[in-house]
Design goal:
heterodimer; A: alpha/beta; Rossmann fold; six-stranded mixed sheet; 4 helices; 6 strands; globular; B: mainly alpha; Na+/H+ antiporter like fold; Glutaredoxin; five-stranded mixed sheet; two-stranded antiparallel ribbon; 27 helices; 7 strands; 66% helix
């Protein structure tokens, strides 16, 4: 067990985390990228600095992590060992709600990235998965996901089906499948509102 | 206001952050002035001593003292100078020695070893020659006269005659002089102390303990150290150990440390606060925090320097060089073995000792002198080293009581100093002439700017002036490429093209940083990386280089592969070889239109020179047109 703190928007800190993990374990089998912030408001009310933050964390952070860890993962794949990247994206159940336009756009970008990386890395023996917890404007606070902290309570009550337990179960399943198949895209929706 | 603004500038200017040989080099005119003042003091003493009457002798033997109740403390004027005032001179030397030991040249034993070995040989061999010549006479005890080189004189001479010599020669000389001073202090302490009474030394020890305690308590106000210093001096004086050594003991205790970044930042904050509200209390905190950022050793050294240069050394010369020059005294001196012992010891002894010992070391370790300094330089230097003025005269007073002996020794010291200066001047003049003949175009750029090879800013096709910098990442004050670019675009548009080449000198990670910069160029981020490296400067660990790479937006994995493979090393080596061929010894060095820029290194001066080059280039290109029209 190794826990280390790194700011995903800093390439150097992510690289330090990679180095620390390799020092501790010698190799890396699996990368789960679950970085994200969310702010919501009507687009016309949106604050550009909030967009920049979402782009930095949700997209650039994910790019840094994927690129930085790709090297040791590919080393693993070359040895015939497991090599998986799991990107946690998001899908909105209510695209008509205009409150999360930028967040949704980024989520779409992440999905597209996952597909492209799958093409690039699949032939080299590394699987890229994307898990998209259903994400919806919600009336209760009960389902709020810790990994997607709500930034702006006034505007948004966000929740998703992706409780950490549920996501962990999917990650375990994806990693445990035979290496010849890839549980490529998972849509994880809340039972009640699905 | 002006005062504090001046101090801020000192922090921001590169001069403030460079210590040791380079700052000494910058101060070379001061070294020159020091030597001139010392010569003036000597000449005045000689003239005065040879005036009719005995005003010189009687003046310097006037008693001056304190009387408290029934007890008197009295010395004649010459002893006040030699015992009390000179304590400050020796403290000044010691401060310099300590600084060199902890922060400067002597810290790196590999580099310091050659001049230190030469200095030791230069202490022993002249003394042996002197003893050999005066053996059997009563003058043998004066061997201490020939051991030490006069730092002020030699640095001054080198400033006059050694201008085209490599700066490393000066470093060699400073190291040699410092090591030599240590030896001389030892000689004075152990060989010339008589009637030793240990009891008063307890006073001195008490005073020293007080200074040590103040040092531990972090007292940084220099004036507070004065009182215990006087106690120490009195203790030394009463014990019979030469009282000037009190200066040495005190200076050894003064704390020294490199300027700490936190202190520097605090000082900057205070200055900024003062700028925002210029009140007396902010002025005071700003001043204090600026002073605190520099160790007391350096502040003391700096504070003492003008007094030593302008007051203490000339007064010492005035009080000690006044030898009565008559036909008889000269004939007597030049027929005495004492005088010839001093001349031979200082002139021949120093030449043989320094040249031969250095030659032997270079046989064992061929790279010991570094690439810039040659054996001929060392020989020239060894001739100058025979100038043993101040400490020689000082030891003369200690060694001899008989006025005939003193006069012989003084004549010998002055003759040796003049002879050594003349020999050294001739040697350096010959070497300079040879140097000029050998490389007449040393100020030309050997490899013209080549857009296909060099890292270039601006458009080489439209530019009328080219600027090539040989630089490194030594200080955070190097002009950032971004500023340079903005400045050049703003002032000169597309008329100037600028190229950067590597000159990693002696910084530990300089070469590594240069190769890292080239690795960034493989990702098309040379200039961004250079800016980030400058921001990180001084580069002290590899993490700073990695952080710079991340900030420059590089792919870190690729960068580390390229950096580790040293892909850019060949280019850096080429730049270094070119710089070597052109005798570039400090960075940054600029070439404007292939000609070396010799002015001061700040953005304004460099830009003014570039503007001048551009204007003359534009005039040149207009003239043919005007003639055709």
């Amino acid at each position: 067990m190794l826990s280390t703190v790194a700011d995903v928007t800093s390439q150097l800190e992510v690289d330090d985390a990679r180095a620390a993990a390799i020092r501790r374990f010698g190799r890396i089998d699996l990368l789960v990228v679950s970085s994200g912030v969310i702010t919501g408001s009507a687009f016309s009310e949106g604050i550009p600095a909030d967009w920049a933050e979402m782009i930095d964390v949700n997209l650039r952070g994910l790019l840094h992590a994927s690129q930085t860890f790709a090297e040791p993962l590919l080393d693993n794949a070359d040895r015939g060992a497991p090599a998986d990247i799991v990107l946690i994206g998001a899908t909105s159940t209510d695209v008509r709600a205009p409150r999360f336009a930028v967040f949704n756009a980024l989520s779409a970008a992440i999905k597209q990235l996952a597909r492209a990386l799958r093409q690039e890395y699949g032939p080299r023996g590394m699987r890229v998965h994307i898990i998209e917890p259903g994400f919806a404007a919600d009336q209760s606070d009960e389902h709020r996901n810790a990994s997607l902290p709500v930034r702006d309570k006034q505007h948004a009550r966000a929740a998703s089906a992706g409780t950490p337990d549920a996501i962990a179960a999917v990650v375990t399943l994806a990693a445990a499948l035979p290496r010849s198949v890839n549980l490529a895209e998972v849509l994880l929706l809340p039972t009640e509102t699905a | 206001m002006t005062n504090v603004a001046g101090s801020t500038f000192a922090i921001n200017s590169p001069d403030a952050t460079r210590r040791g040989p380079i700052s000494r080099l910058r101060r070379s005119p001061e070294a020159l002035r020091g030597a001139v003042v010392l010569i003036a003091g000597t000449v005045a003493a000689l003239v005065w001593a040879n005036l009719a009457g005995d005003s010189y002798e009687s003046f310097w033997h006037l008693p001056l003292g304190l009387e408290l109740g029934g007890s008197r403390f009295e010395l004649d004027l010459q002893h006040w100078v030699n015992d009390a005032v000179m304590a400050v001179f020796f403290a000044h030397i010691t401060l310099e020695v300590r600084r060199e030991l902890e922060l400067g040249e002597l810290r790196d034993w590999r580099r310091a070893s050659v001049p230190v070995i030469a200095a030791v040989a230069g202490l022993v061999i002249p003394a042996l020659i002197y003893v050999g010549i005066t053996w059997g006479t009563g003058a043998v005890g004066g061997w201490g006269i020939v051991v030490s080189t006069d730092t002020a004189f030699v640095l001054g001479m080198l400033a006059i005659i050694g201008r085209v010599m490599p700066p490393q020669l000066r470093i060699f000389l400073v190291t040699l002089a410092v090591a030599d001073d240590v030896g001389a202090l030892g000689v004075i302490a152990f060989a010339y102390t008589d009637h030793f009474t240990p009891l008063p030394l307890f006073f001195a020890v008490g005073g020293l303990a007080m200074i040590a305690a103040m040092r531990l308590a972090g007292v940084w106000r220099g004036a507070l150290y004065l009182l215990p210093s006087i106690v120490v001096w009195v203790g030394f004086f009463l014990s019979g150990v030469h009282a000037t050594l009190a200066g040495v003991a005190i200076a050894l205790l003064l704390p020294i440390f490199p300027t700490r970044f936190d202190d520097l930042r605090r000082a900057q904050d205070h200055v900024r606060a003062f700028q925002m509200s210029p009140t007396a209390s902010y002025a005071r905190t700003a001043n204090n925090s600026l002073a605190r950022a520099v160790s007391i050793n350096e502040r003391a050294h700096r504070a003492l320097t003008p007094y030593v240069t302008w007051l203490i050394l000339p007064i010492f010369a005035l009080a000690n060089a006044g030898v009565n020059v008559t036909r008889e005294s000269l004939v007597d001196a030049f027929t005495s073995r004492l005088t010839w012992g001093i001349i031979a010891g200082l002139v021949i002894g120093k030449i043989v000792a320094i040249s031969v010992s250095t030659w032997i070391v270079t046989r064992v370790r061929p790279d010991a002198l570094g690439p810039a300094v040659r054996m001929s330089h060392i020989t020239g230097l060894s001739m100058l080293a025979g100038m043993g003025f101040t400490i020689s005269l000082f030891v003369t007073e200690l060694a001899f009581d008989d006025s005939v002996d003193v006069s012989r020794a003084q004549i010998g010291v002055i003759a040796a100093t003049v002879l050594a200066a003349t020999l050294g001047a001739v040697a350096f003049a010959v070497m300079s002439a040879l140097e000029r003949r050998r490389s007449p175009h040393r100020d030309r750029l050997v490899r013209p700017l080549d857009p296909s090879r060099d890292r270039v800013l601006g458009d080489p096709r439209s530019a009328v002036v080219n600027v090539v910098e040989y630089g490194n990442y030594a200080t955070p004050h190097s002009p950032a490429a971004r500023e340079m670019r903005r400045e050049m675009e703003g002032r000169f548009g597309s008329e100037v093209v600028y190229a950067f080449r590597h000159l990693p000198l002696e910084q530990p990670l300089g070469l590594s940083a240069a190769i890292a910069n080239e690795a960034a160029a493989l990702q098309g981020r040379f200039w961004e990386m250079r800016d980030e490296l400058i921001r990180e400067a001084p580069i002290e660990n590899e993490r700073q280089i990695r952080r710079a790479a991340a900030s420059a937006g590089l792919n870190l994995r690729r960068f580390e592969h390229d950096w580790g493979d040293a892909t850019g090393a060949q280019r850096v080596d080429e730049d270094l070889a070119d710089a070597e061929a052109m005798h570039l010894h400090h960075a940054p060095t600029y070439f404007i239109d292939n000609t070396r820029y010799e002015g001061s290194i700040d953005a304004d001066s460099v830009n003014a020179a570039v503007a001048a080059a551009r204007n003359s280039a534009l005039r040149r290109s207009e003239q043919p047109g005007a003639q055709a029209g």
